[in-house]
């Protein structure tokens, strides 16, 4: 559709601007050569508040986008007012970046890393809930539901890529997503494939 055509055109434009020659295929045991660039802009309806966050960590080969949900605000017990989506995406991005940076190449088998990835995502979700409860001065999820206003919630999507070598010495990209932020794969001919599932939970 038109959306996919626009995304593909933009990716190709950026790739052509950044890459003058096509790299040779990676030899076994060599580190994958990575290129990244990131940019985020606030929505026109709230230009003073950007509810999105991203990770562009080339050192640890971690890349991600977090689209804070809402546009509403949450008011804390001390009358502090925060953008719910902004706070959620910040918490998730900071924690996930920190935890994935600790994982070295060859530390895990594929199956064990996937288990670890799920664990990290689950803990990030817990931290968002803990922050929401702290803001509202409660210690129980049921109590939180009772004191939250209609648009007072902390939530974010997450699409994350971690590139690393496995125990076999070959590099691979592990991709995780929650919600409708997308990860695309584009080949040298410009063919675009969405490799995540909208509103799903997948690694």
Give the overall shape, derived from the CA principal axes: globular
Strand order of the largest sheet: 1-2-5-6-9
Q: Radius of gyration from the CA trace? A: 19 Å
Tell me the distance between the termini: 26 Å
Unreliable spans? 19-25
N-to-C SSE string, H for helix and E for strand: HEEEEHHHEEEEE
* Total number of strands: 9
Task: Estimate percent helicity.
Answer: 25-40%
Helix tally?
4
- Main beta sheet, described? 5 strands, antiparallel
On the 0 to 100 scale, the average pLDDT is 81
Structural category = alpha+beta
Beta-strand proportion: 15-25%
Description:
With 203 residues, the chain is an alpha+beta fold. The chain has helices at 2-18, 84-101, 110-136, 141-147, and strands at 52-57, 62-67, 73-75, 81-83, 158-165, 171-179, 184-186, 192-194, 200-202. The strands form three sheets. It has a five-stranded antiparallel sheet, covered by helices on one side. The chain has a two-stranded antiparallel ribbon with strand order 3-4. Strands 7-8 form a two-stranded antiparallel ribbon. Strand 3 (73-75) and strand 4 form a beta hairpin. Helix 2 runs antiparallel to helix 3 (110-136). The longest helix has 27 residues, at 110-136. The model is unreliable at 19-25 (pLDDT under 50).
Task: Give a short synopsis of this structure.
The chain is of the alpha+beta class and 203 residues long.
Features:
9 strands, alpha+beta
Secondary structure topology:
Layout (H helix, E strand, L loop, with lengths): L1 H17 L33 E6 L4 E6 L5 E3 L5 E3 H18 L8 H27 L4 H7 L10 E8 L5 E9 L4 E3 L5 E3 L5 E3 L1
């Amino acid at each position: 559709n038109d959306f996919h055509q626009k995304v593909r055109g933009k990716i190709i434009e950026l790739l052509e601007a950044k890459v003058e020659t096509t790299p040779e295929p990676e030899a076994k045991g060599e580190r994958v050569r990575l290129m990244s660039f990131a940019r985020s802009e606030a929505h026109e309806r709230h230009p003073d508040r950007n509810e999105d966050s991203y990770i562009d960590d080339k050192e640890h080969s971690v890349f991600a986008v977090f689209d804070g949900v809402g546009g509403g605000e949450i008011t804390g017990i001390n009358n502090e007012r925060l953008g719910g989506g902004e706070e959620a995406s910040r918490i998730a991005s900071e924690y996930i970046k920190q935890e994935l940076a600790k994982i070295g190449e060859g530390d895990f088998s594929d199956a064990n890393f996937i288990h670890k990835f799920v664990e990290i995502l689950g803990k990030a979700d817990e931290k968002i809930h803990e922050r929401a409860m702290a803001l509202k001065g409660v210690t129980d999820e049921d109590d939180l539901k009772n004191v939250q206003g209609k648009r007072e919630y902390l939530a974010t999507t997450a699409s994350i890529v971690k590139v690393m070598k496995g125990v076999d010495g070959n590099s691979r990209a592990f991709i995780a997503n929650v919600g409708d932020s997308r990860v695309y794969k584009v080949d040298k001919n410009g063919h675009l494939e969405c490799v995540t599932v909208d509103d799903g939970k997948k690694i």
